[in-house]
Every structure is written in structure tokens, then in C-alpha cells.
Amino acid sequence: MAALLALASALVYGSADFCGGLATRRANAQSAVAGAQSVGLVLLLALLPWLGGPASVADLAWAAAAGAAGTLGLVLFYRALADGVMSVVAPVTALCAAAVPVLVGLALGDRLGVPAAVGIALALVAVVLVSADAGLASLGRVRPAGLGLPLAAGVGFGLFFALLAQVSSDAGLSPLIAERVTAVVLLLLVAVARRSPPRLPRAALPLVLLSGVLDIAANVLYLVATQLPGQLAVVGVLASLYPVSTVVLAQVVLRERLVPAQLAGLGAAVLAVVLITV
């Protein structure tokens, strides 16, 4: 069940990213992200009386740390996209984000069977292939000096998954309040530092709203997955397959063409899921 919920969270995370990406075509990225995060916080506060739990100080601290790591990763990711080649930045970041929970899980004592280990390795390859929207040739343009921001962004995303997984199983959704408040506050501080207050045109509001709802739904699915019996190395890597649903939605909705590397990545992702969940 934990693996299925983690996979569901990946599908919803990818859908949220797709909606967020469309929103950034109508508003600047910082405003779109801040708006989506705020929508998620409001939704969480509305659900808390029914789905909250007795979160301890430690639970809230783990969740707040996850929120800080994820937000830092997001800021660095957008900076990397602005300064580098998107077809290189995206797969490098995605690979790092997928690898961190695996490494943390193994360090904490996860023991994997051969099929699961092969599936995780295949999933890491799939994440890179699916994100390589300009083909594998684009990865040949990478320069070591340009890897710092993408790698740091990926570590931020990966730590988000690893830190949120440390929340106790009886905390309910309460820790997500700490995670989301931390994210919103940090984004507002970034806006103040840049002297660029968030502004959302009306045309972007529906997409920002949908992105915020989907993002918090994905967080809930992932948190519940980590609270069930399971291994972080498995749950984390399955949740990190989120680029797959983003790419599929772009192909279906926007009629974008998949390059051969992406098609190979989709096939690798399917096989990885089968091996991991067997």
C-alpha cells in the first residue's frame, strides 16, 4: 500500500508541476509558486479539524525542515533554469532528487531485495531519460562548472522527501501545516529581498489554484505513504518519478512530441515500478 500511495503522489506531483508550468506562462514563476503554496496552506487549515493528529514538536520540526529544503530546492531550480540549459538542468536535478531518499533510506537501515534494487536503479535512469526533452545529446553539453545549482536543487527536493518521511505515523496531516507555513514564509522573504511582491494576473489564477490543490494532495499522499510500513528507499524513489506524469500530460494536452530518449524513459519507468512493487 505504501508503494501504491507513493506512486499516486508522483502522478499528482507531476500534474501539479504541469499546471504550475502553464501558470508561469501567464505570470512570473515566483508569483505562481507563492500563490500555489498559499492555496495549499489554506486548504490544509480547512482540513485540519478532521484530518489533523497529535503531532509532536519533533514531527513539526521535521516537517518544517522539509518545507525549508523543498523551498530552497525550488528557488535554486528556477535559478538554474534561468542560468543554464533546461534540457540539462531538469534531468540532473531530477536524478539527484530521486537518489537522495534512496541513499538516506539505505543509511537508515533499509535492506532491498535484488528486484527492488534493480528497479530503483532503473527508476533513476528513467527519471533522467524522461526529463531529457532535447534528447541524450543535450546531456553532452553539460559542464562541471554548471552542475552546482542543479545538483543543489536536486538535493533540496530529495531532502524534502527524506525529511518528511521522518514524521511519526500518528501525526496525521498536522506536520504539513509546519511544512507549508515554512515554505510560504521563505518565499515571502525571497520576494522582499528581491523587492518583487507576488502579482498574479486573473488569467493565471485558475491554474495556480489547481496547482496548489494538486500539490497539497500529493504531499498528503506521500506523507501517508511514509507513515505506513515500508522503506524510504522504495517510497522516495517512487515519489520521485513525478516527471513522468508531467511529460505525459504535456504530450496529451499540449501535443508535445516525445523524443526517443523520453519514450525509453517511460518504458524504463513502467518496468521499474513493476520490479519495485513485486
From TrEMBL:
Belongs to the EamA transporter family. InterPro entries: EamA_dom (IPR000620), EmrE-like (IPR037185). The keyword Hydrolase does not apply. The keyword rRNA processing does not apply. This is Putative membrane protein. Residues 2-131, 149-277 form the EamA domain. GO terms for cellular component: membrane. The chain crosses the membrane at residues 32-53, 60-82, 88-109, 116-139, 145-165, 177-197, 203-225, 232-253, 259-277. The lineage of its organism: Bacteria, Bacillati, Actinomycetota, Actinomycetes, Geodermatophilales. It comes from Petropleomorpha daqingensis. Keywords: Membrane, Transmembrane, Transmembrane helix. It comes from the Bacteria.
